[in-house]
Target: non-specific serine/threonine protein kinase
Amino acid sequence: MDSSKHNCTEMDTRSNSSWRRFFKLWKNRSIKRLASFPPLGKSKGRSGRENPEFCNLYNFKSSLVNFSLADLQAATNNFSHENLIGKGGYAKVYKGCLQDGQLIAVKRLTKGTADEKTSGFLSELGIIAHVDHPNTAKLIGCGIEGGMHLIFQLSPLGSLGSLLHGSKDNKLDWSKRYKIALGTADGLLYLHESCQRRIIHRDIKADNILLTEDFEPQICDFGLAMWLPKQWTHHNVSKFEGTFGYFAPEYFMHGTVDEKTDVFSFGVLLLELITGRQALDDLQQSLVIWAKPLLDKDDLKELVDPSIGDNYDTEEMDRMVLTASMCIEQSPILRPRMNQVVILLRGDDRVSDCAVESPRPTFRRTYSEELLDIQEYNSTKYLSDLKQHEQVALGC
Ligand SMILES: Nc1ncnc2c1ncn2[C@@H]1O[C@H](COP(=O)(O)OP(=O)(O)OP(=O)(O)O)[C@@H](O)[C@H]1O
Model:
């Protein structure tokens, strides 16, 4: 018997059954409309409501503070090492306190030449300044004296990555993990479908999810994010950027960027929340490759983070596991869109307006869907493809 055919059929059956469960939820239960998170241009009390573009521009100009270097030095104790709270590939982030007592995070761009820093700064600013949602990082202002700086509200608990994979005694309980999954899904849905432009984040990962003191997640780091014009199905990039362990296969293979590449990364994030494991461990082993066979067998005992044990809500866990396995499907067409993810994760009763009143068509096929639809995949090929690409990419 042709084993690849066998695997392919198995995978089809599994996908079909996942989708059948989804459509059952979608059709059979009532979808309540909540006054959710309106797109920026529709917010109440803002002038220029009739003209969202103008409204955006107006808000952008009126609300952002321009900080001098002296302001930032005073706030951060002259960018002292003690105030350093984060370090990414592109920036150092310092904790600070303004004269009025407000706590801030100052992101100082560090990578590249002066021109590269300027273009990175403008690109991130251009996106984040127009993003306004409870589950995205809050930009307060910027400063261009003595370097390129973006100033955010401080997220007191730091990043999900540091909480989940940092201290051993500070493990997140299940209800917090579930809350973080839901909030992040809402934030990503907003970026994809509800804000002024269609935004692909391109670097969804645990380190880029900040947490407020009540564990509300906020998506941060829009350094790689891009606006996709509505009429474009996708964008192809030639420069390989982002974080290993979170890349969708079509990004590896073709540099294709669209909503479904973010959905894949979100699926990896869900796996991190479920398993407590890193997307790539110290031995560079991929979480997706480790988890895939366990997801296929629905082996919760092996999957679930030992620090959680049995202390979880079974229905919530089932929904998280189902959603994770759909989001990391090899073929983008089998992955749900974010408005479907929100429905899957919540069950059905608290579906936000974003899911129901998307300004863009819900089931639009993306380029990556078209591309991979014509290719035959099976579970074994998927895992070996992923392994091979990661080996090439990591040079091991
Ligand atoms: N507003 C904030 N409040 C608290 N901590 C923050 C804030 N913004 C960033 N950080 C911390 O700084 C880290 C790095 O920030 P950020 O991801 O924006 O930098 P980066 O250099 O663009 O990172 P990457 O290498 O992922 O692109 C975050 O993971 C987080 O720990």
Remarks:
- Confidence is low (pLDDT under 50) at residues 1-9, 25-61, 350-363, 373-378.
- The two ends are 34 Å apart (CA to CA).
- The first strand starts at residue 65 and ends at 66.
